[in-house]
Amino acid sequence: MTNFDPGEMLAVAREEALTGKAEGGVPIGAALFTVDGELLGRGHNRRVQDGDPSMHAETAAFRNAGRRRHYRDTIMVTTLSPCWYCSGLVRQFGISHVVIGEARTFSGGHDWLAEHGTGITIVDDPACLSLMTEFVREHPELWFEDIGEEA
Amino acid sequence: MTNFDPGEMLAVAREEALTGKAEGGVPIGAALFTVDGELLGRGHNRRVQDGDPSMHAETAAFRNAGRRRHYRDTIMVTTLSPCWYCSGLVRQFGISHVVIGEARTFSGGHDWLAEHGTGITIVDDPACLSLMTEFVREHPELWFEDIGEEA
To answer: Boundaries of each CMP/dCMP-type deaminase domain copy (chains A, B) (predicted)?
Structure first.
């Protein structure tokens, strides 16, 4: 189960986050891989771009991976600790492992996932951290809207 | 907070479920209302129709309600107990109450939501129950795919 490179996978998620930023959206990116490193789907938050509050980075990557019979051989990589919504996705579909860019600007349900058997790797990546820190400072209203909290 | 009629709201979700069934999809429907009974969005599972595993009934209704600053004055109604994915949605966005058609064919995260302060109403509606019972019997592979389990 450790036949994967968290850094290489995170680079794909970070690329997605930067695309989201360039589009004026919430700069969070994610991707779904097999444990052997095959890319199944990648995506980024689409709240601003599509006016779609249901498309967080993780759900966008999951959608873009299309229909699958099961997810026990998959890894979700995301630039930010997954919120409860995205943590629920991981638990329901039995995604085996989550690689997280950073969990400092926001800490979602990754401890809960670990308690229920999901593997968790927190990279604590400086690029992911500065991307989110800057975004939260510059667009607090958009950030709080994205997680359903009031500023 | 009890200024709403669970039966009237559930009728909308059930209509969505029947539309999904008619389309050959997973027959689960949902809708998001304000606590005063205003319909914000409605939808049904889109796995088959759009090849989209991320669109459960609840996430479809949430998407169709569009962007909102908060959800503390909203009620989600769904024909079936929400899975972990959809329960995570409810918790993350602070949806105040969930009305559930039935929780016999499947029981997701509604107890967990109740522990965290979400109001839960289980209607135990015979029409919702027979709709799901029949579906699970006739299309077990599709049902298990929809919840990420192996038959």
So the answer is: 4-120
Question: Residue B142, class by beta-carbon neighbours within 10 Å (0-12 exposed, 13-18 middle, 19+ buried)?
Answer: middle
Task: Specify whether B58 is catalytic.
Answer: yes
Q: What is the pLDDT along chain A (151 residues), one digit of tens a residue?
A: 456 799 999 999 999 999 999 999 999 999 999 999 999 999 999 999 999 999 999 999 999 999 999 999 999 999 999 999 999 999 999 999 999 999 999 999 999 999 999 999 999 999 999 999 999 999 999 999 999 998 6
Which one of B54, B67, B83 has the shortest CB-CB distance to A53? Answer: B67
Radius of gyration of chain B (CA): 14
Can you name the residues that pair with B99 across neighbouring β-strands? Answer: B77, B121
| Interface mutation target, options B50, B52, B63, B85, chain A, most CBs of A under 10 Å | B85
Q: In 3D, which of B21, B28, B4, B20 has the Cα closest to residue B125? A: B28
ipTM for the predicted complex comes to 0.97
Residue A68 CB-density burial (10 A; 0-12 exposed, 13-18 middle, 19+ buried): middle
Q: Give the Å distances, CA to CA, from A104 to A6, A126, A129, B7, B128.
A: 18, 11, 7, 43, 43
Q: At what angle do helices B6-22 and B57-64 cross, to 10 degrees?
A: 110
Taking the C-alpha atoms of residue A80 and residue A27, their distance in angstroms, rounded to an integer, is 10
Question: Residue B85: its chain A contacts at CB < 8 A?
Answer: 85, 88-89, 91-93
Q: Is the pTM of this model over 0.90?
A: yes
Q: Which of A97, A10, A126, A93 is nearest to A57 (CA)?
A: A10
> Token pair of B34, please?
């304000």
